[in-house]
Amino acid sequence: MSTSESRPARRDSVRNRQRLVEAAREVFAERGFGATLDDIARHAGLGTGTAYRHFPNKQAVAAEVLRGATEQIVTDAHEALEVADPWAGLVQFFECVAARQAADRGLYETLTGQGDYEAQAQIWPRIVAAVRQLFDRAHEAGAIRADAVAEDIAAVFALLGPAYAMGRTVHPEVWRRYLALLLDGLRAEGKTSLPGPPPTAADIPALLGAGKQF
Length: 214
Hints:
The chain has 214 residues and is mainly α. The chain has helices spanning 3-31, 37-44, 48-54, 58-80, 86-102, 105-111, 117-140, 152-159, 161-167, 174-184, 204-211.
């Protein structure tokens, strides 16, 4: 094949991969991680063989989707740092990320360990590192309880899963009520000490995995 012939082929391959990732994002958002790679290929308007040439399984394409979602969460944390009030910035971060998860079943499921386990293990430390700046600033301002740690965010988001499910049958915004209750537990004023040791970065996979057993 000549160089001129190979370039269009490469461009077609890149476009097809992009179509598959975008289709996966849409299919997972609507149907959750129960969707198959065949479903994704169909949604992209491509053949199953084309999908499998780019991705060996749905976990691989989910990892691509998760990487993009991680970048957005880190961006959300950085934008929240620009809010003058430390508590308001922390609330803005939680509300932004929770709203995206409420609208995207696949995002929630992959972040809480139902997608590619190795990819999930790699992305959470980056998310926690970005959020730690929000927690440090809030601690310095006396806005949140002293024993709250950035690693707690994994469990907070996992706990919102049932509220997202309620939104599909009760009210689409019901999760906001329960996020407010969870966030109230982070406030510094009038709180009892939290029992037990705080979670570490190494504990996050176990925390998320335990939630899937119910």
